[in-house]
Amino acid sequence: MMEELIEKGGSMTLLKVSSKSSPTAVAGALAGVLRREGEAEVQAIGAGAVNQAVKAIAICRGYVAPNGIDLVCIPAFADVEINGDQRTAIKFIIQPR
Predict the structure, then answer these.
(1) Which of 6, 17, 27, 40 makes an SS bond possible with 44, Cβ 3.0 to 4.6 Å?
(2) Could you give the CA distance from residue 66 to residue 44 in angstroms, rounded to a whole number?
(3) How far apart are CA 55 and CA 70, in angstroms?
């Protein structure tokens, strides 16, 4: 299920989160990407999706901490096109400190 929400674009892997996403599933996928690539981007559109994304990032911190990885999260806006419409997403750039 998470495979269809993970995109490899630019220099970072992008995980798209919806309001229906499971925070633990997103956290597991995020932890895998961080261990493999060292950084990732999480993208969410709407309050519910941002809520699930923030929970997933918090859970992920607990997953990678035993490996000595301390995460930081850099929030930013991103303009995305969905079905021909321009939308503003919140993106979280996740990197080790």
Answers:
(1) 17
(2) 27
(3) 16
Q: Residue 87: which domain range?
A: 2-96
Read off φ and ψ for residue 53, nearest 5 degrees.
Answer: -65, -45
Count up the domains in the chain and report the number: 1
Average pLDDT, the chain: 90
Considering the entire predicted model, what is its pTM? Answer: 0.87
Judging by beta carbons within 10 Å of its beta carbon (0-12, 13-18, 19+), is residue 28 exposed, middle or buried?
Answer: middle
Residue 52 has pLDDT above 50, yes or no: yes
Q: How far is CA 9 from CA 2, 47, 75, in A?
A: 16, 24, 18
**What is the C-alpha to C-alpha distance for residues 24 and 56, in angstroms, rounded to an integer?**
6
